[in-house]
Amino acid sequence: MPPTPPELLQRLQHHIGQLVLGKAEQVKLSLTCLVARGHLLLEDVPGVGKTTLAEGLARSFSMSFARVQFTADVLPSDILGAQVFLQARGQFEFRPGPIFHQVVLADELNRAPPRTQSALLEAMAQGQVSLDSVTHPLPAPFSVIATQNPLDLSGTYPLPDSQLDRFLLRISLGHLAPEVETQLLMSRRSDPLVGFKPIADAADLVALQNAADLVQISKDIADYAVRIAAATREHAEIERGISTRAALSLMATARAVALWEGRDFVTPGDVKAVSVPVLSHRLLLKNSSHGAFARDEAAHLVGELLRKVPAPR
User: Could you tell me the CA-to-CA distances from 299 to 43, 198, 202, 277, 281 in Å, in that order?
Assistant: First the structure.
């Protein structure tokens, strides 16, 4: 008998947790993002396991994976692909780039210039790439996992609002707890991904996504999301609040959270559980600082609003 969605999700969380030690909540949010058909932004310092998490997610579902290291000289064609002239045939042939994988790690995305960053927009929004008047569909399921360093701003190009808005969740892994770091240092794993096997496949992920689509949103929950959105637009410290697309993203993520509990309806607790990672990167604050400080300010404001906006009973 196949596992239920909660059973499969918990198995996946445990499985990936063997790679990314001591980060059960971040692993859960990452899986939730995939189930909600979203893209994930990992904002953190180097060396805390972002790449391992991204590849672990892909391998757990036996999905194809590509890593692109973004630098100032990366061109859109390096990501999307290009038409190559085959002299023997006397014709052009499209050679797909790394974007044509099911999970794509865009490493240090903010180090690429805006033109290259924008090459991801159509892929993230519509699951396709248009080149030379020809539209090429991307594999399904498809997800972009991007990283950026919030502290080192030298030689970076801040992600524009339209790019940030395409990421369903933004999370940070953070440093390990001392006891977990000690455990990691004592291990003999030179590469934790060696021997790491899938426990599901892409069809299982699609089934989870379809199951999340069936989770019901009541009028009370929809009204609650609208009140949260309105509160961000009216707050004195927020220059621009969240859009309707952001509110839709919040509901999609809350549906995926409900799936973890085996429920076919969303509760106010589901909405609260993901409001910070879904909404905070979409806020434009007045007199905002930069990097991790801006992230923390936005997260604090979202938490403040959740305490003030009454939830349905």
Answer: 13, 34, 33, 8, 8
